[in-house]
Amino acid sequence: MSLSVDIQLKRLSRIYHQGETVSGVLVLDSRSDARHDGITLTMDGVASVQLSPRSAGLIESIVNSSKPISLINQSVEVAKSGKIPSGQTEIPFELALVPRNSSKTLYETYHGVYITVQYSLRCDIKRSLLAKDVTKMQEFIVEYRPGSGDNEEQKIVNFEIRPETLQNVRDRARIPQFLVRGHLDTSVFPLSKPITGEVTVCECERGISSIELQLVRVETCGSAEGHTREASEIQNIQIGEGDVCRCIAIPIYMVFPRLFTCSTTVAPSFKIEFELNIVIIFDNDHLVVETFPIKLIRS
């Protein structure tokens, strides 16, 4: 293509907060002089909800709530009709990161299975009928300001896992007698820090194959009249391999992935929540799972 455009943001991290200015330059590269009918830059922010196949047949309120929610939509003309000279041309730009409705709050960037919150810049170079329009998109990341969750109370969560505490067990005969104790350092985790704690196998009459940590997102779509709730795994790490030693504390340590987690979000038509599973797999391939609801904050 004889004409190309690139969007370069001033911040290499591409992370912005509500109320800030998103600035950078449009870099136009043309092999020869090229006429155009105007260059526009559009800032878009959309929360998209996709219902799972299992939600088919539910009430109309859920269907209505699945429509995309426009968070930001503003467009500016950065250049009027004219000519782009050959070589490289830079056009600076600045756009304020404010929601369409000043009373609303921008949700954090999030890429989930059924819910996606995405912000982007799109540059459009309009050209005549004989030449193809040129379009370029660049995603940027929106986060809540640091310190937005400082008032959250953080307490140690002690736990004890044994056959009597398990729920939704189909075949109790396959579950050996065991006792696992431990703690999470808190149930409210800052996204900038890892999940920490420890787990100790006090006793177990069978061998253990593996102990794993599983981070799960719980996406709820719908309204008070009806909703769908879907849980899916984000990441899984092994903290114990083989028949671990008894009565020795195993540290829990998991770093949050960047785009697949966000601050716990409760919106009118959707919720983004998170859980931590501790999975113990015995040597007969039977496994037990203990689930801990956790809250993620930006601090």
Task: Explain how this protein is built.
- The structure is a single chain.
- The protein has 299 residues and is mainly β.
- It is built from 1 helix and 21 strands.
- Strands 2, 5, 6, 9, 10 and 11 form a 6-stranded mixed sheet that branches. Strands 14, 16, 17, 19, 20 and 21 form a 6-stranded mixed sheet that branches. Strands 12-13-15-18 form a 4-stranded antiparallel sheet, with no helix packed on it.
- The longest helix has 6 residues.
- The chain is elongated, with a radius of gyration of 25 Å.
- It starts with a strand and ends with a strand.
- The model has no long low-confidence stretch (mean pLDDT 89).
Q: Fraction of residues in helices?
A: under 10%
Strand content: over 45%
Radius of gyration: 25 Å
N to C succession of SSEs: EEEEEHEEEEEEEEEEEEEEEE
Given helix and strand content, the structural type is mainly beta
Compute the number of helices.
1
Q: What's the mean pLDDT score?
A: 89
Low-pLDDT runs: none
Number of strands: 21
Walk me through the topology.
Blueprint: E1 3-9, E2 15-16, E3 21-30, E4 34-36, E5 39-49, H1 60-65, E6 69-79, E7 82-84, E8 87-96, E9 110-111, E10 115-125, E11 134-142, E12 157-161, E13 178-184, E14 188-190, E15 195-204, E16 208-223, E17 226-241, E18 249-254, E19 265-266, E20 270-282, E21 287-297
Parallel strand pairs: 2-11, 14-21
Antiparallel strand pairs: 1-3, 3-8, 4-7, 5-6, 5-10, 9-10, 10-11, 12-13, 13-15, 15-18, 16-17, 16-20, 19-20, 20-21
